[in-house]
Design goal:
This protein has about 500 residues and is an alpha+beta fold. Helix content is about 40%, strand content about 20%. Strands 15, 16, 17, 18, 19, 22, 23 and 24 form an eight-stranded mixed sheet that branches.
Length: about 500
């Protein structure tokens, strides 16, 4: 028998089937784009997304006849809520996390409860909109739709429901709503009351790995699935990615290097909330029972490399691609071994914790006519990594130590990028042999929930293999510690200027 992991993202749906031993059997993907919407709106056509999900399931199922699918689980983007009618129809498009409509409602709730109390309940930082803002916007601007909806569900639960199961939401996705009581594991009556929302419109809650039904017979026939496929409750895509990389112990963290970079440390108890808030760090449930995570990110990330290639060397990029090579591999090969003397402030795009809401500008300081292209490329990656090195220090001050990272994403294929990261973070980084950690994590959840594995730890032991480990280089790490002091002084000065002038100048 095999396990199916489904990942519903903002730009596409993907599915992967593995054997119980971890052998890849099949995978498929379909892309979609934002739906046409008014200015400032970020929405997905929910029906198109559902069609894409059915297509990837059918493609994978058709290629696993020799090892039929036994159970499936769905991981999905956070914050996005979709209204359902009482008879199970999708009523409107899904509003994405980037959509700021309704953010005034969050500010109003924060004023009523106080920022400390709101954080104590939800673990979410002021400035995070979550699903709360989407619900308030629909209530205030589309009252007929809002009143006619039976439930507002997140995508993992929506897919489970449409396949024939329950619309239940797991704790990791509920943590993205700004409506979830992190300690009590339930919808917060206090936040709901402050926002004027009713719990009846929200789905039931349960931990990831809970069995929530069986794929309906008609849909199983349509999708070429065998009869009786079990639907196991999945969770937030970043938490499932961490699971897929084997980040199941306190002190471990995921380091996801893509166009955006994400750091996701795992810990086993809720830290002192006042410390976390003072350090600009959030808290959320992991898909693992009893475990928590904090999400740090920077959307500059690998996007700075794409910008460099597309804007500064577009002709060279095309020539390299004609030879069947990666321009990024070619560019990274030019980086010098030693740290650069440049200082890059990595805020060319939106950044999250520990600088969520800050308007610190991006910039490159120290450029000379003698600066080489390789030095500039390395400086861009150094700057992005400083953001996470600062986050690591803030986590330490809040009582959360990171002893090692598991890395994935396009940037993790580069030995040089991972070594640079290990040197700056001063912490070992391991690269597992995992293609897509989110889908793998969802498949693991399906395996644990269906009894194929006795625990998440057993699933990791069976399925995750470390390919290479990168240790920090002592001399380079020492140089980077000095650079970090410069970086933090500059960031502090710019934040003070922002508070005085109301902008970066």
């Amino acid at each position: 028998m095999s396990l199916l992991g489904i990942d519903v993202g903002t730009s596409g749906a993907r599915a992967l089937a593995i054997s119980i031993e971890g052998r890849l059997l099949a995978e498929a993907s379909r892309e979609y784009s934002l739906a046409p919407a008014a200015s400032g709106a970020y929405e997905l056509d929910s029906e198109r997304v559902w069609a894409a999900i059915r297509e990837v399931i059918a493609e994978v199922a058709a290629r696993t006849k020799q090892d039929p699918i036994h159970a499936l689980s769905v991981t999905s983007m956070g914050e996005v809520i979709v209204p359902l009618s009482a008879d199970g129809r999708i009523l409107s498009q899904g509003i994405l996390s980037a959509d700021q409509r309704g953010s005034h409602c969050v500010r109003a709730v924060e004023q009523k409860l106080g920022r400390e109390r709101l954080f104590e309940i939800t673990g979410s930082l002021p400035g995070s909109t979550g699903s709360l803002s989407k619900l308030c916007w629909l209530r205030d601007n589309k009252p007929a739709l809002f009143e006619g909806a039976w439930r507002f569900v997140l995508w993992s639960g929506l897919v489970s429901y449409l396949l024939g199961g329950a619309s239940t939401c797991d704790y990791s996705l509920a943590s993205r709503t700004l409506l979830f009581d992190l300690a009590q594991k339930r919808w917060s009556s206090e936040v709901l009351h402050a926002s004027g929302l009713l719990p009846l419109k929200l789905p039931d809650l349960a931990p990831a790995g809970t069995s929530v039904g069986i794929v309906s017979a008609p849909l199983a026939r349509e999708l070429s699935l065998p009869a009786g496929v079990r639907i196991i409750l999945g969770g937030y895509d970043l938490s499932c990615s961490a699971l897929g990389l084997g980040v199941v112990e306190g002190g471990m963290a995921m380091y996801l290097l893509g166009n955006s970079i994400f750091m996701l440390p795992t810990f086993n108890a809720i830290p002192l909330t006042s410390l976390m808030l003072s350090q600009g760090l959030d808290m959320a449930c992991h898909v693992l029972p009893g475990a928590f995570v904090s999400v740090l990110y920077n959307q500059s990330g690998g996007a700075v490399l794409r910008w460099f290639a597309d804007t500064l060397v577009p002709l060279e990029k095309r020539e390299v691609q004609k030879r069947g090579l990666s321009v990024y591999t070619e560019l990274l090969a030019e980086m010098p071994e030693e740290p650069t003397e440049l200082m890059v402030l990595p805020y060319f795009a939106q950044a999250g914790p520990p600088h969520l809401g800050d308007r610190v500008p991006g910039g490159v300081l120290g450029l000379l006519t003698s600066t080489t292209r390789g030095e500039l490329i390395k400086a861009l990656l150094e700057g992005v990594t400083y953001h996470f090195a600062e986050g690591q220090e803030r986590l330490q001050r809040a009582g959360i130590s990171i002893k090692g990272y598991r890395a994935a994403g396009g940037g993790a294929r580069s030995d040089r990028w991972l070594q640079l990261s290990a040197d700056i973070l001063g912490t070992p980084i391991e690269r597992p042999q995992v293609g897509d950690p989110a889908m793998m994590g969802a498949a693991m959840v399906a395996g644990v929930g269906s009894g194929a594995y006795a625990s998440f730890e057993e699933a990791v032991k069976m399925l995750v293999r470390v390919e290479r480990r990168f240790e920090p280089h002592p001399q380079r790490s020492a140089l980077y510690r000095a650079q970090m002091e410069r970086y933090q002084k500059m960031i502090s000065a710019l934040r003070e200027q922002e508070m005085v002038t109301g902008g970066p100048g």
